[in-house]
Amino acid sequence: MTAYWISTYLEVNDEEKLRAYAELAGPALQAAGATFLARSTAAEAYEAGRLERSVLIEFANLDAARAAHDSPAYQEALVALGDGAVRDLRIVEGVEPAAPVDRP
Question: Is the predicted pLDDT of residue 104 greater than 90, yes or no?
């Protein structure tokens, strides 16, 4: 079952560190099988939402998502980021597609 990283940037403290992270993280995650589905500032925010940078990444499964995070290449990216941003990163499993409903 697919798995997704959902990352939101609560604060960006250092744009240079964020750029250094992005230069390392993108290739590291793609090498681990990541597909970037969304990567931008939120277009809308509802309820308790915030208009912050959000990233949605798809992986083949939960093990692949965990392995990508724990990989030496991604850990190097995290070192480059350091205190450059405060983020909320979650890994969630996808849902099974619903079976089609037969309709007369």
Answer: no
